[in-house]
């Protein structure tokens, strides 16, 4: 099975088995900071003109906030079960809507120069380097000129990078965090990027990198997990 197909299978099963419990209910803090810094000064009535796409929207934990704040919100996920959960979550709990589609990050079903911003919270990290390149090219294609791209993903400083208990797909990607004593175990393929690799991958896809912030946490077990909050742009 291809790594991308394996990742889809893993998360589809999680949504089917655990429903809303498979994902957090509230948006990622770094995503809120990104959106606030770029768009919250804008009058609420004008936000409907800002199109924002979330890659890997899952059950809608981030997407409801974008819709509630008045943006023209779109979500895409490879899991039909995830899309169905998101539809219910947005409509029933929050009374909002978004344009939701099942689809692939490597073949986005949107027109060129369509979005003002594309955001990703721990979804693109499940692609290997080859598929990541395809996804970044697609992100650039669907972004408007000067459009922004936010991504929140695991860094190579995380303990699981060297102690995953799984095999390597490529230099930055493991096929699974098989060691169940480690955080985020059994989520299928996972990539761990450094700032240097981020710059290389974005440059290869003709995307700019405006900022990279390291954000870490230590689990109760003592395991250290770090993320990169990356702000890029189509220049």
What's this, in brief?
The chain is of the alpha/beta class and 235 residues long. Helices cover 31% and strands 26% of the residues. It has a single domain (3-155, 191-233), classed as Vaccinia Virus protein VP39 (Rossmann fold, 3-Layer(aba) Sandwich).
Number of strands: 10
List unreliable stretches of 5+ residues.
none
Number of structurally distinct domains: 1
Biggest pleated-sheet summary = 7 strands, mixed
How are the strands of the largest sheet arranged? 3-2-1-4-5-10-9
The CATH C-level class name: Alpha Beta
CA-based gyration radius = 17 Å
SSE layout:
Layout lengths: L2 H16 L10 H11 L11 E5 L7 H6 L3 E6 L2 H15 L4 E4 L12 E7 L7 H14 E12 L13 E3 L2 E2 L15 E2 L3 H10 L3 E11 L5 E10 L2
Parallel strand pairs: 1-2, 1-4, 2-3, 4-5
Antiparallel strand pairs: 5-10, 6-7, 7-8, 9-10
Helix pairs in contact: 1-4
Any overview of this molecule?
The protein is α/β, with parallel strands linked by helices. It has one domain (3-155, 191-233): Rossmann fold. The protein is 31% helix and 26% strand. The chain has a seven-stranded mixed beta sheet with strand order 3-2-1-4-5-10-9, with helices on both faces. A hairpin with a 2-residue loop joins strand 6 (168-170) and strand 7. The longest helix is centred in the N-terminal third of the chain and has 16 residues, at 3-18. It is globular, with a radius of gyration of 17 Å.
């Amino acid at each position: 099975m291809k790594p991308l197909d394996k990742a889809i299978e893993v998360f589809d099963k999680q949504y089917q088995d655990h429903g809303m419990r498979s994902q957090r209910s509230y948006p990622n803090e770094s995503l809120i900071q990104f959106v606030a810094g770029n768009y919250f000064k804008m009058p609420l009535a004008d936000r409907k003109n800002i199109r924002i796409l979330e890659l890997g929207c899952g059950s809608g934990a981030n997407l409801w906030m974008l819709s509630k704040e008045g943006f023209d919100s779109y979500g895409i996920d490879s899991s039909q079960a995830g899309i169905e959960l998101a539809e219910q979550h947005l409509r029933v709990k929050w009374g909002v809507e978004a344009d939701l589609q099942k689809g692939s990050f490597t073949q986005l079903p949107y027109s060129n120069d369509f979005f003002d911003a594309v955001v990703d919270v721990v979804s693109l990290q499940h692609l290997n380097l080859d598929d990541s390149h395809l996804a970044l090219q697609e992100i650039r294609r669907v972004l408007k000129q000067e459009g922004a791209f936010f991504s929140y993903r695991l860094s190579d400083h995380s303990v699981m990078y060297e102690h995953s208990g799984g095999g390597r797909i490529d230099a930055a990607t493991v096929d699974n965090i098989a060691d169940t004593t480690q955080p985020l175990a059994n989520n299928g393929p996972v990539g761990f990027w450094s700032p240097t690799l981020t710059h290389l991958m974005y440059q290869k896809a003709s995307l700019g990198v405006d900022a990279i912030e390291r954000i870490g946490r230590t689990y109760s077990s003592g395991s250290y997990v770090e993320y990169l909050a990356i702000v890029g742009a189509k220049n």
